[in-house]
Amino acid sequence: EIAELRASLKKDARESGKQTVKLCCGTACRATGSLKVLDALHKHAEHVKDVEVITTGCQGLCQKGPLMKVEPHGYFYQRVGAAHIPKIVSSTFMAGFPVRELLYRDSIITKPVELMEEVPFYKKQQRLVLRNNERIDPCNILQYIRYDGYLALEKALSGMSSKDVINEIINSGLRGRGGAGFPTGIKWDAVSQSMVKTKMVVANGDEGDPGAFMDRSIMEGDPHSLLEGMLLCAYAIGAKYGFIYVRHEYPLAVKNLNIAIKQARDMGLLGNNILGTEFCFDVSIREGAGAFVCGEETALLASIEGRRGYPVQKPPFPAESGVWTYPTCINNIETLANVPYIIANGSQNYATLGTERSKGTKVFALTGKIKNTGLIEVPMGITLREIIYEIGGGILENRKLKAVQTGGPSGGCIPAELIDLRIDFDSLFEAGSMMGSGGLVVMDEKDCMVDVAKFFLSFTQQESCGKCPPCRIGTYQMLQILDRITKGEGGHGDIERLQQIGNMVKEGSLCGL
Description:
- By secondary structure, the chain is an alpha/beta fold.
- It is built from 20 helices and 13 strands.
- The strands form three sheets. Strands 10-9-13-11-12 form a five-stranded mixed β-sheet, with helices on one face. Strands 2-1-3-4 form a four-stranded mixed β-sheet, covered by helices on one side.
- Helix 8 runs antiparallel to helix 9, helix 8 packs across helix 11 and helix 18 runs antiparallel to helix 19.
- The chain starts with a helix and ends in a 5-residue tail after the last helix.
């Protein structure tokens, strides 16, 4: 029935002849007025025949929002205001011509770019996880199905065993996108081998790194891809229950997820006897209270259970004893959003992307002293230079690059001399940083690295759960030293003490945060 519905939806779309306005209504564009633009569209375009308005998730180029794409012309408009709508209606909807002042251009004298895929920001991207963000309404399951949504689930339930699904994930080379980079298929296999009957799937949406908004954008813009990834994980490991752990600070993500869950239940894609099979699985949402430490898996599990989010000693690992002691498979949101693509298109297709040990693509939140901030998805192995100067457009006011901070507070700063470093799990680790969840904060020549270190240390000190004395006391002592240095009161031995205490905190604390 789902296959027939998909075919019907695609046929209707081909034959409708409608012009489609795809307006970004993600959090960033809402902040710059996209809801006012939406009201103006409904007011001025209602009399125009065969125009459909779709509100999408984050389309990526947050710096220049609100963003709008008009199909079938492919026109890509930026910084659209409510006052522009009458001109868009008369010029584009009625006559088919672009509104040239709304098109992207590098400078006043350069030629405007009409199509999204020709804009420099998008040219080097490979939008796999974000493939639906600029084209579907996240609150309309039919639009997700039209673009091959739940095709992977159909494929798995109709012709694949649970072991087949796990092997596909192993062969794809997919590694966890939450920071540690552990092979996803190996984790699934470990949970599947447990003899305990009740198993759990947990999606970790506790995105606590400053400047990070990758998981938020997936949950807001394409919640069904997350649900489909969880369904495939549950089928593979034999789970019947799942939780999505979301930060309370993500109200739009929570709203869209709740709508998606209800729609999936209504269509028989969640609950009992999914797609007419014996497979049963359901999902509920748990909201976190904003504690950074709850991004660590054992603290997250404690929070789901209603306890305070403290990390605990491992082993046992969650795969053996997780939520309420049941074997639990915990994956990051982006990791799970990769799964439908892998199952639908095959592991070999996915494995052609990226590098030898880091397969696929990675979503980054590109922020800081850069001209084009926003959400990007690039193949693993791309260089920092390509991201900063070709996708990001270079440093603000054409200043010199000083460093790029990756991996959040637990990561590190990559200096400008390593600008040709390839972005993958191993290269970043060897350079002294880490992939983390995907924050990229660009700094210029005016940034003070001591202040940057103090900022991130201040964050980790405030967010310490207080359970481990090395962390609780050590981060406070380190912050005092850095505070003295930034006031010009540093002394001999301060750097050595920072290194010594830092190593003690790292080695003597339970979590990696």
